[in-house]
């Protein structure tokens, strides 16, 4: 754990928990399941998009990485209600049990995830560009840990740079004022030195005499980005997880730290922090 103190004497704790960059197997790693190398044609490929997870009120960003040792790693902000307790995971890992074809040139992959015992069937499209699938009917895993996905896209082996300014959807709230959905991740920038800075109301945060603009660390691993959003109302950094589109222009984002995060919540009466049932996303605005 590290703490970052800015000149206003407010402490912002830099601690990446939940959807963290840890235990991710690296950009082409094994994810820790200890499988046997099988030389599958789809080894070391990654697909991403959004998934439907039980008891979630919007679809969650997800990245599925096929490792080189007959294992699969799924990265998301998993939140499971098990035996009355909330269980959080940033990734789960499983073993490939069988590989076949779907009759249309696609590749079918049966996977059993460690820990949960969830059995899934995944299908790579004939042109290798897409992935769909999820928990099978009759999976022995609890319903809370099961998930489905469709339309995941193949991410390029050489990622495009995310450096540049990013923002969320702007909203005209009347009287000439403009606000943004998902304000923690509105109007900020990634730099080539793996740091992030934040603008608020058109100015670097914080600003004023004797202040130094805040910078925080970010990490990119394949299509996955681990970074911090900023809630300036509490001078607090929020750990975020994102999956990047193949062209590097759009990122679906999520967090497991809802204590200060400004994202949609169940039964909200307005869309101040973004519309309900819609996966939060940000868009690249300019190059550095």
Detailed description of the structure:
- This protein is mostly beta strands and 288 residues long.
- Helix content is 0%, strand content 48%.
- It is built from no helices and 22 strands.
- The protein has strands at 2-5, 11-14, 45-53, 60-66, 71-82, 85-101, 107-113, 119-124, 130-135, 147-154, 164-167, 170-174, 177-180, 188-190, 195-200, 203-204, 215-217, 219-221, 224-231, 236-244, 250-254, 281-286.
- The model is unreliable at 1-18 and 22-33 (pLDDT under 50).
What does this entry show, briefly?
The chain has 288 residues and is mainly β.
Topology:
Layout: E1 2-5, E2 11-14, E3 45-53, E4 60-66, E5 71-82, E6 85-101, E7 107-113, E8 119-124, E9 130-135, E10 147-154, E11 164-167, E12 170-174, E13 177-180, E14 188-190, E15 195-200, E16 203-204, E17 215-217, E18 219-221, E19 224-231, E20 236-244, E21 250-254, E22 281-286
Antiparallel strand pairs: 1-2, 3-4, 3-10, 4-5, 5-6, 6-7, 7-8, 8-9, 9-10, 11-14, 11-22, 12-13, 14-15, 15-16, 15-17, 18-19, 19-20, 20-21, 21-22
- Gyration radius over CA: 20 Å
Low confidence ranges? 1-18, 22-33
Secondary structure class reads: mainly beta
Helix run count: 0
Describe this protein with a few key phrases.
22 strands; disordered N terminus; mainly beta; 288 residues; single chain; 8-stranded antiparallel β-barrel; globular
